Amino acid sequence: MIPQGRIQKLNTLDPREGDYILYWMQASQRISCNHALAFAMDEAARLHLPLVVYFGLTASYPESYERHYHFMVEGLLEVKKALTDMDIQFIVLNETPSTGAVKLSERAALLVTDRGYLKIQRQWRAEAAEAVSCPMLQVESDVLVPADETSMKEEYSAATIRRKIERLILEYAPPLERREMKKSSLSMKLPLSSIPFENAEDILSALSVNGEVAPVSHLYKGGYAEARRRLDDFVENRLEYYAEKRNEPSEDLGSDLSPYLHFGQISPLEIYLALSDHHSESKRVFLDELIVRRELAVNFVLRNPHYDSFASITSFAKDTLLAHSKDERPYLYSTEELEQGKTHDPYWNAAQLEMVHLGKMQGYMRMYWGKKIIEWTETPEKAYETALYLNNKYNLDGRDPNGFAGVAWCFGKHDRGWKERPVFGKVRYMNANGLERKFDIRAYVENVEAKIRRSRDDHA
Question: Could you tell me which residues come within 8 angstroms of residue 121 by beta carbon, excluding any fewer than 6 positions away?
C-alpha cells in the first residue's frame, strides 16, 4: 500500500478505459524501492491491464554534458533489462519528456509519473497534465517524507525542518514490497516505437550531446547495482568512522551515493533501511545529511522561485554581502582561471581539479571552494553565478536541489550570522589556515593529484 501522502492528482479527468497503464519514469530511474512504479503496477493489476514504462531522453537538458548523460544512460540500460525480466515494455523516446508522455498516453487508462523538483521538471509535468486526455497522478519517491507533507513554506534552517520531518518519518519509512506483473506488455504495439537502446556510446552518439565534459565511468559507473554495492561497502567499512572523520579531505569516508541519488538510481528509503540495524552517532549524522539536509534542499528549490540565482539569498546574508560588495578583494580571478584551477591557493585548485577530472568533489572542500569564489570574484552576484556554473558543469551530482542549496549555503542561506569581516560581512568565513589547522590538507592535494594521474592512465 502506497501512503496517500505520496500521491497527488495532477489533473481532474475522470477514469476511462484504455489499453494499458503508462508510467512516465523521469526522476526515479530505478526498479528497486520505486513508489511510482509500484503504484503503477498496483493500478495495472487492479484494472487487469499491462504496464508500459516510458522515459523521455532529451539532449537539451540545461547544463548537461556527456559526463552526465553517460552516467544516466548506464543506469537506464540496467532499468531496461530489469523491466524486460518483469515482462514490462520500456519505451525511450528522443523527445521533450512531456511531449512523449502526451503521445504515449493517447491509449492509456492512466498516466503515472514520479516527482521532480526543479523548474524544468515541474514544467514538464504541468505541460503533460494539461495536455493528456486521461487521469494523471504523481507519486513522490525520491525523498523519505513527501515535500508537501513536510512543509508548504520555505524553511529557515535545518533546525526548523528537522522537527517536522522527524514527526513523519515512521509513517513513510515502511519497506516497499516487490510487485509481480499479471500481464505482459512486451509484445504490445504502441503509438510510438522506442529509439534503439542497447549501448551507451551509440545512444550518446545518436543524441549528439555536448562532449565538452568527458565521462568518468571508470570512476563512477551508473545504475542501481553499483549504487547498492557502494551503499553496502560504506555501511560495512566506513560508516563507523563517519561522525568523527567525515570532513577530513584526505580520507575517503563518504558514501559516494550523491550521483546515484541525483539520478534517482537508488532510493533514500532504501539507504535509510540499510542502516536499520546500526545504532551509533555516525548513523545519526549520516541520516541527518541524507534526510534533513537533503530534504531541506528540496524545500528550498520548491519554495524559493529564485533558487538558481543570488536573488534566493535573503535576510542578513543578502544585506551583509551587498553592503560589502565594494570591499577590496585580496585576489580577483576570471571564470576561466577558476575553471582551470589556476589560483594562488593549492588547496582550492585541488578541489576544483578534483571536480573537473574526477566528477565529484570531497564534501568539506565544497564549502571551502564556494567561500573562496565569493572572496575572489568582483561581486557576490557574479560569484554566485560562477559557483553554480562550475558546480553544475562538472559535478555528477550538480544541477539538483542539493547542488543549488549547497551553493546557497556558502552565501549564508540556512546559516546564521558570524563575526563581521571584509567581503563576507557576517556570512561564515573559511580560510587556508583553518584547513591546515584541522586537517592533513597537503595529503588531500597529493591524493587528488595521484587520482587524476591514475584516471588519465586508465582513460589512455
Answer: 26, 27
In the sheet with 51-56, reading across from the earlier edge strand, the strands are 7-9, 136-139, 108-113, 20-24, 51-56, 89-93
Q: What is the DSSP letter of 103?
A: H
Residue 428 pLDDT more than 90?
A: yes
Instruction: Output phi, psi for 307, to 5 deg.
Output: -55, -20
Whether the Cβ atoms of residue 444 and residue 365 lie closer than 8 Å to each other: yes
Secondary-structure percent of the chain, ordered helix, strand, coil, rounded to 5: 50, 5, 40
CA distance 179 to 140: 18
Query: Structure pTM?
Result: 0.97
CATH code linked to domain 1-141: 3.40.50.620
Tens of pLDDT, residue by residue over 261-294, are: 999 999 999 999 999 999 999 999 999 999 999 9
User: Topology of domain 143-176+224-303, per CATH?
Assistant: 1.25.40
Domain boundaries, the chain: 1-141, 143-176+224-303, 306-459
CATH class of 306-459: mainly alpha
Inter-residue contact 22 to 112 (CB < 8 Å): yes
**39's grid cell:** 503504484
